[in-house]
Each structure stands twice: as C-alpha cells, then as structure tokens.
Amino acid sequence: MSTNISTPRGTAAVKQKKRRASTLAGRDALWGYLFILPQLLGFLIFVVGPLIAVIVFSTQDRNLLFGTATPVGLDNYRTLLTGDALFWQVMQNTLYFSLLLVPLNIVVALALALALARPFRGAHLFRLVYFAPVVTAAAAWAIVWRFILQGENGTLNQFLRLVGIDGPNWLHDPFWAMQAVIATRVLKNVGLNIVVLLGAILNIPAQYEEAARVDGAGSWRVFWNIKLPLLAPALLFVSVITLIGSLKVFDHIMLMTAGGPGNSTMVLVYYIYYQAFQFFQTGYASALAVVLFVVTLGLTILQWVLRKEEIQ
Amino acid sequence: MQHNLMRRLASAIVLLLSILLVSACTVAVPQGGVQAPAQAQPADLRFTVWINPDHPAMVAYNEMAQTYMADHPEVASITFDTIPFGEYTSKLTLQLAGGNPPDGGWVLENTAPQFVASQVMADLQPALTAAEGYDLADFSESALALWKAGDGLYALPFSTSPFLILYNKDLFAAAGLEDPNALAARGEWTWEALAAAAKTIAETQDVYGIEGVDGALYTSPWSTLTPIVRSFGGDFWDADGNCTLNSPETVAALQFFHDMIFVDQSVVPPGEIGDFFTGQSAMTLGQISRLTKLDNAEFAWDVAPLPAGPVAQAATIGQAGLTIFANSPNRDAAIDFLTYLTNPENSQTMGAFFPSARRSVINSEAFLNGNPRLSADQMKLVVAGIENGQVLPNHQNFSQIDLAARASIDKLWRADADVQAIMDETCAAIAPLLLK
Q: Cα A20 to the chain's mean position, in Å?
C-alpha cells in the first residue's frame, strides 16, 4: 500500500517530495525491523512458541513417558477445579507465600534502604553485606539454613534456648515450615530491592526535605508526605518484580522442605514440576502452568492499576 | 509503504506462529513399537547411567566396551552418559520423549512398573534366549519378575542388592554392647535387640543409635520402613492393589519404630542430621554400593544381616535394571552389547559393585572373595539376602502414591501421633491410585 495514492492531485512537487519522504521513512523502518529481527525471532521461538504450545498441551491428555497425546478439551481444567483437592491446597499455599513475602520484603527493603541512605561510617560495608545473599547460590543458602533451623541441634534453637525459649522444629512443623521458608527467602532476595530503593532515595533532591523541615515537618511527616510519594514508582517496580518472583519460587522450596511436611509448603511451580517430571502428566502440568500465567498476569495488572491511581 | 511492511511483518508472524502451533501438535509421536531402521553404517551406542565417570564400575564398563568393539566392527563407539541420580528418571524420560533417545540405560526399581507399562523398553527375551552361552535360566524367576510383562522381558537386573545393617564397631564396643553378628549367630538379632542397642548408644555415646536409609527417612520413608514392616508380617500394599498400610501388623511395626524415635530417642529425629558415614550414628540400613563411602572412615565398621521381627527376617533387596529402549536407532546392535555386558563372565566382574542375580555368579568362590571391602563371610550375608530377598514395594503409580501418602505419613513424625488413625487416613488417600 502506498500513501501517495491518496495524495490530492495537482501538486506534483509536493507529491514527489512526500513520496521520497515516505520511502525514506519506510526504508528506515525496514532497517529498524531488520535490526530487531534476531531478537524478535528468538522471542517468537523461545517465548511465544512455548506459550502457545503450553496452551495447546493443556487441552490434551499427555504423558511424557508413554508418549501419548489425546485431545480432551477442557478436561484438565475441570479436573483441576473439581477433582484435585491438592490443587486448592497448593493455590492457598502459593497465595499465602506471596501475600506474606511481598509486603515483608518491601517493608524490610525500604527500612534498610532508608537507613543505608544516610551517610555513616561503614555504609558501603553494610550495602555489601545485605547484597551478598543475592549472589549466593540458592542451593548453598538453603543447605546452610537447613542446618540453622534444625529442631534440636539447630543454631537458631540453641540461641533461643539461651534466652529461655523452646523453639519449634522449624522445617518439620506444618505451620512454621512455611514461615521459615518465607523468612529465609526474604533474607536471600531483599538485597536486590534495597539496591533499587536506595537508588531511588538518593535521587530525591535534598531541597524537598530541607523545605519540609523548614516548614516544621518531623521525620515521620517527611517520610510519609515527601519521600514515600516520590518513591512510589520505584516501589511499584519492586513490588511487581517481587510478586512475580514469589509466584515462581521453586528451587528454594525444593531444597528447604521438598514441599513438606504434609504438603504444607507445596507451591504451584513445585506442583507443576511434580506433575510434569515425576508423574509425566505434561497435559495436566500445562493446565497448571496456564493457571500460573493467568494468576501472575492478573495480580500484576491489579497491582499496576492500584499503584498507578495512587501515584497520580 | 510503512503499512505495507507492517502488514507483511504481521503475516510473517502469523505464519511462523501457525508453524509453531502445528509442530507443537505433531510432536507427540507414540514411542512404543517404533521399528529400528536397518543398520548400514557402524553404530554409535549410548547408554545412560547414574554413577560418576570416575566410579570403578564405570572403568570396568569402559574396558568391556573396548573389548567388545575390537570384535564388533559394526559398532563404532560406545559411551556411558552420567545423569545424576536425583534427576535420573526425569532427564532420561525427556531424552526418550525428545528426538535424542539413548540406545540403552539403567532403570530404577521404583519406576520399573511404569517403564514396563509404557512400552518404552525393547523386549530382550528372544535375543537373550537365543544367545549362545548366555543361559537366561541362570537368573531366578523372582529376580526377573519386576521386569517382565506377558512373555516379554524388558530389562535385565544388573544389580540385585540386599539391605544390610551397617554398624560402627567402635561405638558398639564403647557402649559395652555385644556384636550384632554374634547375636545373629545365636538367632538373637531381632528388632528388639537392635532397638535396645540403639537406645544404649544414644544414652551413653552422645550420638544417635540409627539413621534411616541415606538419611532420607522423613522425605522418602519406604526403603527404611520396608524391612521392619515385613518382619512384623505387614506390608504397604498387596499385588491386588489393596492397601495394607493400616493392617494390624504394619501398624504394630510402625508403632515400634515410632517409639524408637520418640520414646527411646535413638533414631535421628526429623530435621536433624546424624550421618552414619561420619560417625554421628551407630547404625544405618544400606546396600553394598554405599560401602565406598566408608573408604576413609575413621572408625571400625562391619555389616550385619537385617534383624528378625516377630514373624520373619524379611530380607529386602533393591534392584536396578539394564535395558535397551524401543526407539533406539541401533536396537539390534545395542541388544547384542547388553547380552555381552551381562554374560556370566562380565556379571562376575561387575559383581564387585553390583551383585548379580545370576545363581552361578553369587554361588561362586570368586564372588565371595571378589569384593575389596568385604570378607567372604560378610559376602555370605549378601548372598543370603539375594537368595531370600523380596524387592522393595513398587507400583505403576509409585510417584503419585508417594505424594498422596506423604500428606498423612508426615504426621507420623510427631511425638503424639496416632499411628492407626494416620495409616487409615493414608490408605484412604492412596486407595484409588493403587487400583489404577
């Protein structure tokens, strides 16, 4: 299609000029598309392709080992909603994990970022200390914490005994196992959020705070009315990233509790792994993956909308 | 122009997506019964195993492969690929489902029924029966049972390894306890005796009395519990798919073990680490393949038979099979190499690591004297275990049963657990899976 066809007659020069301009723009665009083509192809093959495949698989009764694939329509979704009691427990666990982890992570990250933003001796050392767990191998982190959280000989319980508290068997108590998994996960990843928030805090011009203080605002008011609103975009970013990360948690659960005790820490991605690679039910696992996708998308959009209103 | 380009780009994307979609739909090719193409070029054979490349058994395998290739120009190369034990079955299955199946490999016992049912393995019966000097009848029927379906034999057990009690002689001596083998010789090595010894050691030696199989009692309890449950006359489920986890015998055995954990406090409790191999526990249950972990032990150790219960001694064996996959591109060549690997002579060699199920091998002097870590007397315990042993519980839906049972079995590992009620609940949870 050529834009010049619709150009009014009579002004040949203008027409000519326009054609040249649009050809030029078109050529630029062509080059642009050529430049993004490798990335686009990769995206299509490795992201869009599997995404569509998962949706197709989710409508089949597929067994990886038996090599079978029978179309079953929405049967997998029906099973998941009505015939799989564990699925609902898994969903509950997953939401509990995320809804506790995200606020905890953000509050801790914000508090530490505010503390670290003030210049004091050793600030750099502390920034390093809080960031170190982020670059630590997940496996090493989980194994060390399993030692610390042992029932009798664990470091934590030995410490608690000193102050007269008889600590629970952290990873083998259905209630405490989940809290322990959440707390150790926050400690592992909070450093990343600290860095983002610290950057945002340091970007707030000092005059704002000075002006507020001149007007008689105390520290709490400065934080609540000046800093927090200015940090809103950074907080939005951090909470979305943390939420998505928390819904995708897998290695941490596998290494700390393997979903136990009594499936109390079985979260969605770990359950997908079980269905696909232990039971080889790839059709059902795909249906679960679609649920994960929809939940993640839904929560992210919700958060986006809510925060956007608040920012404005 | 720009719109034109956009439109073309859009149609290209749509085309690409359609291709992806179509290919996604057609990837699923039934794996069973795919015929291997005629072999014209020399074959490259690939086997998957779960031992490390530097394991002595791997060295022996590679030497056998070299000898075999010297006589068989139709085979160009033979490689043994290591897949770590923890992810073995899932990675093997992915390779089989993808376009790159290995020609053969090891198969774990608890996945055997699933693998047999899925028809991913080739029938070895005709080739092994026909092979000269192979003598398939040398294997006992019970040893092959797990790998058979109808008239077909789908894998050969290369390892039939009984569970033994591994114990720390120094700790037994320090606690002033009689040696388990001396008790066994008088017929007094019972679960009662084991529990008493474990309790004494836990009370006097500042270590645990006994650790479960591979320290995994609370995550994967089946192999640790099988010997005691069967020696009390119980079992987990029967061949007809009835759950027997809540039978009086099974519950009595579990109650006995529960008391060892929570009353005697002699078993490594949930969440604690008490590794036998580093001297933190006085006993464990294990197979001879685990003995390599004791090569640098700083204590004296020995092996004893499994203790007897009120009903039986209940020798228990773990098995692993060697198979050729149905869609191997070099199926015939691979089966011929499997025949060579498991012939009487090579079974004898491998017996130092993985006890063979061949009667001629386990009854030979060479087998009794062939293990660098065990004396002939100790090896007699192994032979007795192989001859009398029953394999660990298994089922076509084992992994589903394992997960379904876990929700309630985990409740056993608390001091106030009501064993009967928990096992009733477990049976209710796994009953539908047992019947499938």
A: 47
Q: Identify the residue with better confidence: B6 or A82.
A: A82
Task: Give me the pLDDT at residue B313, please.
Answer: 85
Whether B2 and A65 lie within 8 Å, measured CB to CB: no
Buried b (16+ CB within 10 A) or exposed e, B391-418: bbbbbbbbbbbbbbbbbbbbbbbbeebe
CA dihedral B94→B96→B102→B108, nearest 10 degrees, is 80
Distance from CA of B436 to the nearest CA of A (A): 14
Calculate the CA B137 to chain-centre distance.
23
- Nearest-Cα distance to chain B for A70, in Å, is 9
Residue with tokens 């042993």: B389
Domain boundaries, chain A: 3-48, 84-311
State residue B373's pLDDT score: 87
pLDDT of residue B27: 40
Task: Determine contact: A55 vs chain B, CB below 8 A.
Answer: no
Give me the numbers of helices (H) and strands (E) for chain B, helices first please.
18, 12
Interface predicted TM-score (ipTM) of this complex, two decimals: 0.78
Q: Which fold has domain B164-314+397-435?
A: D-Maltodextrin-Binding Protein; domain 2 (3.40.190)
List, for chain B, all residue ranges whose pLDDT scores fall below the cut of 70.
1-40
pLDDT given for residue B20 in this prediction: 45
Q: Do A56 and B25 touch (CB under 8 A)?
A: yes
CB pair distance less than 8 Å for B1 and A22: yes
CB contact under 8 A, A69 and B28: yes
For A1-40, write each residue's pLDDT tens digit.
Answer: 344 444 445 556 666 666 666 777 888 889 989 999 999 9
Question: What's the mean per-residue pLDDT of chain A?
Answer: 87
Instruction: Summarize the confidence of residues A243-271 as an average pLDDT.
Output: 91
Count of H helices and E strands in chain A? 14, 2
- A274 to B31: CB separation less than 8 angstroms, yes or no: no
Within 10 A of B175 (CB to CB), how many other CB atoms are there? Answer: 19
Lowest average pLDDT, out of A223-232, A284-293, B19-28, B374-383, goes to B19-28
Residue B180 to residue B172: CA distance in whole angstroms: 9
**Interchain CB contact of A258 with B (< 8 Å):** yes
Question: Of B402, B364, B321, B296, nearest to B121 (Cα)?
Answer: B321
The pLDDT assigned to B10 comes to 56
Q: How many CB atoms lie within 10 A of CB A279?
A: 19
A48 CB neighbours in chain B (<8 A) are 17, 20
Q: Please give the span between the terminal C-alpha atoms of chain B, in angstroms, as a whole number.
A: 62
B43-161+318-390: what CATH class? alpha beta
Give CA separation, A50 vs A57, A242, B25, in Å: 10, 24, 12
User: Top-level CATH class of A84-311?
Assistant: mainly alpha
- Pure H helices in B274-375: 331-341, 344-350, 359-362, 365-368
In chain B, list all ranges with CATH 3.40.190.10. Answer: 43-161+318-390, 164-314+397-435
